Amino acid sequence: MIFLQRKYTTKMTPRQSSPNILWLETAESTNRTLRERAYTIDNLSVIAAREQTAGRGQGTHSWYSTKGLNLTFSILFNPRELETCDMILLTCATTLGIRDYLKEKGVEARIKWPNDIWVGERKICGILIENILEGKQIRHSIIGIGLNLNEEGWPPELPNPVSLKELTGMHYDTDAELEMLVNKICRRFAMTDTSNGRSSLQEEFEKYLFRRA
Description:
The chain has 213 residues and is α/β, with parallel strands linked by helices. The protein has helices spanning 30-37, 88-104, 164-168, 174-190, 195-208, and strands at residues 2-5, 21-27, 46-52, 71-77, 110-112, 116-119, 122-134, 137-147, 209-211. Strands 1, 2, 3, 4, 5, 6, 7, 8 and 9 form a 9-stranded mixed sheet that branches. The relative contact order is 0.20.
């Protein structure tokens, strides 16, 4: 995770029943684009790109995706009363939301520590979370997600990728699938509002966590 600090005052926008999704043809990084707009857009806003020219994974890793075939996007989440010690809940909610989506497609996925999604021994999704803090409070969380949706032609240097199309034999509409996936994740975000929801997130996360780096 990357932690950014800035002092400011802002009014938290209400949670939306349907996230606002903005598609871009090309972006260097959806996380970077969303971070630049974090103070002026609504909670649960999404920026997606048909093509990312500088998409990042964890550390120094880049994210491979052919233009128009996969989902590369970022969600802005403004948590309610989450502190830096609660950051793991953001990972729990995001990974479980993605797992919910894949399960609905008939795919059983597991979580590889800290925030990759694998099917069997192959990686289908990666996540990069950046937080903007106000003191100890998490004011904005920018959650970048790359999901292999329709990809089939992988570079040889990638050791273990897989796409949803390779698993199911079906081709997917990126716009429709993004909306479904975001809604699953946002339902999980809502669980961070209560102590019972937070406990449930952590318990379920541990249940599907299969490897710690």
